[in-house]
Automatic annotation (TrEMBL):
Coiled-coil residue spans: none
Pfam families, per the entry: Na_Ca_ex (PF01699)
UniProt protein name: Cation transporter
Transmembrane stretches, start-end: 6-28, 40-64, 70-93, 105-126, 132-154, 191-213, 225-244, 251-269, 289-306, 318-336
A GO term, aspect molecular function: calcium channel activity
Mode of membrane association: Multi-pass membrane protein
Subcellular location field: Membrane
GO BP annotations, alphabetical order: intracellular calcium ion homeostasis
Length: 337
């Protein structure tokens, strides 16, 4: 495959992922209402995990093929890209700062869980190289942290011990009125088919990315951290913007933050697929830099969610503008590393 063909293929796959992501949004919002679990939990866990299928397929495929740098950077780069996508969604919501209007305890807890998981991975990268059947024990612990953290979020969602102050800009998570008319088998079929499309497209994104890295002269770390991570994260962008337009603000934020928490598990799955030892210790400064950038962006977003500024530049919060600036500055530095 030539470089130009690979680029067009990546763009085509990105468009396919974005289209499937639109269907996932509509179905996910309906499922949240039908099950009574709420937008925060469905968006953060179910929709966040499903929309991440393309990314996990990319990282696992790259790891299985022995491309550790591409696999790792795709995972952590996707977290950085999706945080920026939330800032973009904030710019599309004209009434007020999105993080102010979508105040939710579940989203705050998901943000804290994300920072805990990313920091844990950073500790593992800097720690000793340990493997058991070529898998680092940290991969199992990472899964355990996610499961226990998600259970805490679900428990807090049902019986909250803390609630945000509601203002006239706050948009509450309320179910639609026409749930009795919903064709449930068709709804879940669309959801599952869209999820399958996203997953299969992610597999081919990994294959195309290797071609781009080899023929463009760019490092696999940079290609993974920017190109494949953005392409495979398009469902989150589409879902968040579509959710904002539908008025499902809690779902928009939960999809990004919950999806980011699930994205950290890419590393555990990739470590299992990588046959040459611990994937955490195959990475270099570039991957550690993007990982640290992800922690910085998540912390900035979480601080903005707690501050709850009502209005800012272009009706976006200061955290959104800061996240965009840190992302652009970070990737300029990454290009020259």
């Amino acid at each position: 495959m030539t470089l130009s063909t690979a680029i067009f293929a990546l763009l085509g796959l990105a468009a396919l992922i974005a289209t499937a992501g639109t269907v996932l949004t509509r179905a996910g919002d309906r499922i949240a209402d039908l099950t009574g679990l709420g937008e925060a939990l469905i968006g953060g866990v179910l929709l966040g995990g499903i929309s991440s299928l393309s990314g996990v397929m990319t990282s696992v495929t790259a790891a299985w093929d022995g491309h550790a740098h591409l696999s790792f950077s795709n995972a952590v780069g996707g977290i950085a890209a999706q945080t920026v996508f939330l800032a973009v969604a904030d710019l599309t919501y004209r009434r007020a700062n999105l993080e102010h209007a979508s105040a939710s305890l579940s989203n705050l807890m998901q943000g804290i869980l994300l920072m805990l998981m990313l920091t844990f991975v950073l500790l593992v990268v800097a720690g000793p190289d340990l493997t058991l059947w070529h898998i680092h024990p940290a991969s199992v612990l990472l899964l355990l942290i996610y499961v226990l953290g998600t259970r805490l979020v679900a428990k807090a969602s049902k019986s909250p011990m803390w609630k945000p102050i509601h203002t006239r800009e706050t948009v509450e998570d309320e179910p639609d009125d026409d749930l009795e008319q919903v064709n449930k088998p068709l709804l879940f079929t669309r959801f599952l088919l869209s999820a399958a499309v996203v997953g299969v497209a992610g597999y081919f994104v990994a294959k195309v990315a290797v071609v781009i890295a080899n023929q463009s002269g760019l490092s696999q770390s940079f290609v993974g951290a920017l190109f494949t991570s953005v392409a495979t994260s398009l469902p989150e962008l589409v879902i968040s913007i579509a959710a904002v337009r539908q008025g499902a603000l809690t779902l928009a934020v939960a999809n990004i933050i919950g999806g980011n928490s699930f994205d950290v598990l890419f590393l555990a799955f990739a470590d299992t697929a990588y046959q040459e030892g611990s994937i955490y210790h195959e990475v270099g400064n570039a991957e550690a830099f993007v990982l640290s950038l992800g922690i910085l962006l998540a912390g900035t977003l979480l601080l903005g969610m707690l501050h709850r500024q009502r209005e800012g530049l272009a009706n976006a919060g200061w955290e959104s503008i800061t996240v965009i600036g840190l992302f652009l500055g970070g990737y300029i530095v990454l290009y020259f590393m």
